[in-house]
Amino acid sequence: MKWAALMVVLSTGGLLIFATDDFPPWRDPHSPASEHVSPRYIEKSMEETGVPNLVTAVLADYRGYDTLFETAVIFTAGIACFLLLRTYREKEKESRLYRHVHTGLIVEVEAGSRMREASEHFERADRLWAPDDLIIRTACRILIPFIQLFGLQVLANGHHTPGGGFQGGVILGASLILLALSRDLRTATRMMPERISGLLSASGVLVYAGIGTVCVLLGHSFLDYAALAPILFVDPVQARNLGILGVEIGVAMAVMATMIVIYGNVASAGYYDEGL
Amino acid sequence: MIWSLDLAVLTLVVGCGIAAIMVKDLLCAAILFGAYSFMMCLLWAIMGAVDVAFTEASVGAGVSTVFFVAAVFRTTRRTKD
Q1: pTM
Q2: DSSP of chain A, one letter per residue?
């Protein structure tokens, strides 16, 4: 059986490699892909949208539908993780661990007995994985603001440099995941409550689709940002430029929040109390 | 394009890919998959697709590896049944 599977895989792979022989050579200016629509984008995108980064112009403007549904796919992945994993059932009562902040001693509090959640001297510790490393914690605390700034820079500079909403959103989400990794999930959830990340991931898609709908209401086709010129008081090229920025922000919001939702649900198996 | 660099990265991509499905330990597989993603990112950058390389680095090598590790963390070393 194993050999049969290996044969199938090898023959499929061999066929695929054999088929690459029919591809046009790499960087061939006369390949079908380069001759059909590419010249239009390369020659006209700067004067039509005012965006120097061709990839951003194609992704957010000429191929706006693709990016809208990509964002919807990310959102759906977040929803699926939430629906499959999130549980509001009460966990069986089990003893809790608290760490004495000044000495690092771990104290176990029996199930049912009362202990304040956060005090000056004690902080909650995870049962499964509770190392407390000062170096990691401090290094991450210093790093996280810079990572978030970098994420915002990638988002805002998508017009000029590689990057944009998707990458910026992932970097912003990763900064909060790093916080959850270096401290614990509760700290990250305090910074970004579950409700807010859920709301942000939905409203990111809403921002994208809303900008498209506004274009329809103003009498143009869906996601034709030139329609926004009268309400933004700019010329149509500038309006397309700003429209791209708007949808990039929507994408970043949706992606950032979805990453946090997925991580929180996967790491805590849906309970949102103790995680990696 | 420097052909020796290209060859080295391609070899590492194939090596990481095969190793990721061959190892028994799930955490090892997750980390190897992250390494595979990073090598793919280098490959995209070599081919001049910087935007794709950026996405691969942030999503493939960064966040998805963390998701895998988080999911592995929720498994047990031996199956219960």
Answers
A1: 0.86
A2: -HHHHHHHHHHHHHHHHHHGGGSPPTT-TTSHHHHHTHHHHHHHHHHHH--S-HHHHIIIIITHHHHHHHHHHHHHHHHHHHHHH---SPPPP--EEEEETTT--EEEE-TT----SS-SSEEEE-SS-----HHHHHHHHHHHHHHHHHHHHHHHTTTTSS--HHHHHHHHHHHHHHHHHHS-HHHHHHHS-HHHHHHHHHHHHHHHHHHHHHHHHTTS-TT-GGGGHHHHTS-HHHHHHHHHHHHHHHHHHHHHHHHHHHHHHHHTTT-SSS--
